[in-house]
Amino acid sequence: MPDLDITLDTRARHTLSRQLYEELRRLIVTGKIAPSQPLPATRALSAELGIARATVVAAFNRLKQEGYVEGLDGSGTYVSNNLPEQPAKPIAEKETPLQIQVKRARLSTYAKHVLNFPGIEYSWTEPEISFHGWRGALSVAPVRQLSQAFARAAKKFDPALLDYAHEPLGYKPLREAIARWLRKTRGIKCSEDQVIVLCGWRQAISLMARIHLDRGDLVAIENPSYPGLRESFELEGATVFSVPVDESGFLVDEVIESVDEQFRLVYLSPSHQNPIGVALSLNRRVELLNWARRSGALIVEDEHDSEFQFGVGSIPALKGLDEQNQVIFLGSFYKTLFPSLGIAYLVLPDNLVEVYCRTRDFVGEHVPLLLQAMLADFMQRGYLLRHVRKMHVLYAKRRQALMRSLEKHFGPRATVFGEEAGMHALVQFETGLSETEIIYKAKTVGVGLVGTSRYYVGGPVHQAEFMLGYADLTEQRIEEGIKRLASILL
Fold it and tell me: Are 219 and 15 in contact (CB under 8 A)?
């Protein structure tokens, strides 16, 4: 293969992985690297360019996602024979002296990065039966108890609750309630002074990225994982390294054996991997913690929806094993209560509390104090524990209904993964149809589905794989939805 004419600039605005991706894409589009021609091995190219191999892997993964290259098992990476079509450049109209020249507002580098990402797909018209997995049972949310808690907080008429936030970590009674909750339900020994209350998951990601990452620094995340996670870190300038997941969870050896890579953060969901649903084995938890202690990297443990376990004992949090202050625990009330509450929290190592307190004022607003006081009252009176126990029973019945319906209508032509935890099941259907075709056909019979292809870097392991969220569907609606799917897929 001829020498590649690639120029990278460490002082440029774009990350090195983004620059390398653009350089390789240019060479492919211009024909300098022809269809079917192999790309260099990632390790060889990283050595030639003097950059981390993870940077090369990230660039290759993006080229794969966009269809410029493809990987053949055991044969490396090749330029695709069917390249994506390039958008035609608009022909500029001839201007006359009388025309007024209007300059458009300049976009920042961050905004241009945002436009380069596919973004999150929102549907304002819900299908009749939605198997979307991002919400709990909204119809049985404890609205009455929460409204009473809000009324009690307002009735006290503490002027401080109407003022600007005066506690940088958040409302102390809420932090105390969260610390007690975690000690009781997740085995995490922490004090309220390690808990910081935030305006949602994205503020937590932005805060961690700004405190721990410089442009180009390496973050390891699971593959597959929620697409917004990768995008959030890349928008903050990080280089994201995808680590495969198997039946025992995150492949810790992929990180440990990358001796030439300097990871700053490792982000994972060890109790209920999203979307596969597996739990990280105890041996791998210990290996990961030992590696983090040696390397100085931080582990971010995303709680996700691991409060709900079925058929297995409660899986303790990774943070509960952390004796060296290497784990940041990220939790929220999105799944235990409802998404629009918009409250998340971090449990921090003691040595990081001060820098988080000082930085959080520059990363979004504080959660309104009245809202924090409401949630504190709700938790202090035991309503959250009561509600989670109630939901556990309800979700177990709905999960069983989903399993029965799949067995009844699909039999061996539907394979379920990670069925013992969380609020969704990962299901692979045996059909000759693509994910896009199945989603389209499902819409024609009023059923909404979420495919997993966007969750993977380099393509899904299984074709026709879907996350079937059941928490917000009655047993009757679950049965009807699976019946309708069978009518179009079998």
Answer: no
Q: What is the pLDDT of residues 149-208, one digit of tens each?
A: 999 988 877 777 777 777 889 999 999 999 999 999 889 999 999 999 999 999 999 999
Q: Strand, coil or helix: what is 367?
A: coil
Q: Are 333 and 351 in contact (CB under 8 A)?
A: no
Close Cβ partners of 51 (under 8 Å, ≥ 6 residues apart): 8, 16, 20
Q: Report whether CATH 3.30.70.270 matches the domain 142-384.
A: no
CATH superfamily of 129-139+386-489: Aspartate Aminotransferase, domain 1 (3.90.1150.10)
Length of the chain: 490
CA 384 – CA 149 distance, rounded (Å):
12
Backbone angles phi, psi at 328, to 5 degrees: -105, 125
pLDDT over threshold 90, residue 72: no
* Res 36: pLDDT: 86
Tokens representing 383 are: 């309503």
Q: What is the pTM of this model?
A: 0.81
Report DSSP state, residue 226.
-
pLDDT number for residue 1: 46
Q: Are 451 and 435 in contact (CB under 8 A)?
A: yes
pLDDT digit string, tens, across residues 243-281: 999 989 999 999 988 866 789 999 999 988 888 888 899
Give the single-character DSSP code of 109: H
Q: How many CB atoms lie within 10 A of CB 254?
A: 14
Name the residue ranges covered by the structural domains of the chain. Answer: 16-79, 129-139+386-489, 142-384
Residue range 16-79, CATH number: 1.10.10.10
In which residue are the tokens 């079509």 written?
A: 85
> Higher model confidence: residue 83 or residue 466?
466
- Going from the C-alpha of 310 to that of each of 87, 287, 300, 315, 353, the distances in angstroms are 50, 26, 25, 11, 35
- Dihedral over Cα of 269, 270, 272, 275: its sign: positive
